[in-house]
Give the backbone structure.
Amino acid sequence: MAPLPSLCLLLLVLLLPPGAAAASPSPSRLVPYDLLYADGVRAYLARDWGRAAELLQRALHSYAGLRAARRACRAACRREAAFLGGPPAAGPWEAALLDRVLQRADCLQHCLGSRLGAAPSAHRASHAVRRDFERREPYNYLQVAFFQLKKLDQAVSAAHTFFVANPQHLQMREDIEKYRRMSGVKSDNFRDLEAAPHWEAYEAGVQHYNADEYLQAVDRLEESLREALSALEECRALCEGPLEEEEEEEEEEMQPGLYEAIAAHYIQVLKCRQQCVLEIATKPGRISATEDFIPSHLDLLQFAYDQVGNQALAAECAASYLLFYPTDEPVLEKMKQYQTELGEDTTVTARENIHHYVQRSLMEKKLIYYAVEHLGGTFNDPDLWTPDELIPENLKQKYREDQEKQKQETLDVEEREKRGPLPFEGITVTMDSRQMNGTHRVVFDRVLTESECKDLLRLTKAAGGTGDGYRARRSPHTPHERFEGLTVLKAMQLAQNGDVDWRDAKLLLQASEKSRKIIESYFTPGKKLHFSFTHLVCRTAVEEEQEGRMDLSHPVHADNCLLDPEGKECWKEPPAYVYRDYSGILYLNDDFQGGGLFFTEMDAVTVTAKVRPKCGRLVAFSSGKENPHGVWAVSRGRRCAIALWYTHSQEHAEQERVKAEELMERKAAEQNQPDGEEYQGADHSSRSSSESLTPDGRAGPVSRRHKPGSDRMQQPKQTRARDEF
């Protein structure tokens, strides 16, 4: 699967002359990585695989070298031009301070110039290129180049490195599986070339801890803590970059003065440093950080040391943990126990590096909160342990509101992380749970084309029977509407008898199966969803019954429990369909009045979200008490949709669908047309005529890209890939 360059990168490739960075550099000169990257992509597009591989590897080496040089120079200049001591006895603070600032600036210029072999400004890449490297995009190009060069071991490592940071990338997942099946590929070829040492140690430590292997857990968790604190310092050093303006100020009078500019840049650096804890606590490929990453190490270590009989180190870890949460009752009790076991004369102190970490963080937070209070701006505090007294009184209410908002966003993030990639190209997520003010709710568009909607509407008119399609009720919910329903089995029987077009009946099976795959991949990737019931339904307003109408087309309810609005409870017991897990509605038209779907609180009155029907729109949600919903009255016209219910329980799978598929297979056989060519059942892959296909005939991918307040779901990437295997 070959990636295509983004628009910004293409502009860089086109604007730079060929070979802008490709010439052999002098030994002391580090060529800017964005130039190497542009030349590498140019060679890639020209299918010069050897040149592309060389340049892309050099770009990655240059990127790593630049970061290393910045870290080393800032650490060295911090020592050489340290801000220590006070001003001369009679000298002003301003001169003393800025004298040190100038010395450090001079130190950094010389240090970086000697390490890079060029002016540091030559290494400032665009935001788009920096983002590509943060997302490991060069490895996506590299894996194709290495594959074409028949260097399978390097291709596999590059592919795996990209996939670790982009686990939602559907096509790369398929490519990884192809590599696994290839002869000559070894398991140790699947290496993460950008692996963070602290994550490997942390995950191993937690595994030993959960297996009660405390000696091994102690070793790996201590290693993880050391590496994490080291990574934190490296991240903080990289925060001292140029001021990033949110928007350009063109008028001269709008430019900040000396002290305002210094303050703005310094606060930007402090905020960046504070966010570093989220960066090291976020595993590659995840969008949320591990909560309380540093304190959790200490909590795990104090218990593990206690289990191996080292109460002195257990007490030290407990004391260190209390620097973050000084009122934590269980740990305070453990401290008393350790003190008793060690003897009252033994002094227990927290680790010096943890004490420094906490005090420095508190100092930075204090400065940031002062700036927010007096100079404006916002601060998304990354830590749960920030003392309440540190926050200015007039910001506390906003801080609490932000914390509540962050908690909800954390739930949304966790929900997003459980999602898989959508299995069909072109489908868009119009609203997610956050935008719909709930959980496990989503709206997809472009699931069906206009022509497919018309074909299914033709099916409803041809079937034409009044009633719900399976219990012969005229209208199960209101006398003000005429209700028509058609099951998949009834549709296939009508097609068999020649009463409806065979293709329309088959499209009903295809559209519902496509919806199942979308909902399964979004909400429950890797866990099978079975059809519980499929129902093509239309509700038509009875014209003479609309005056003074007060009821709903479908009263507020939940799909797998009995809603009790007064008690604000939902009883999961018969006659409710307690085995239903997810629900969906695939709309076919919008040429009517009313008929919109709405969600409510448990009181069945407070509306939390609304969904307007339109052709090809699929709304999906979990079937429990978290999603009470109803349908407003259809006051004019005819509203048609496919109602869908799903279950994880195979024993409750829709039997009528099995029979419908058997009829379809029999019909296909009669026409001497193998069924597999046009339709496959729920346990196989299915494809509707609205899907986009890659050249090898598969449905193409849609790429989508813990602390609360992290990234929103990103827009589908502009790059698309094709199969190179």
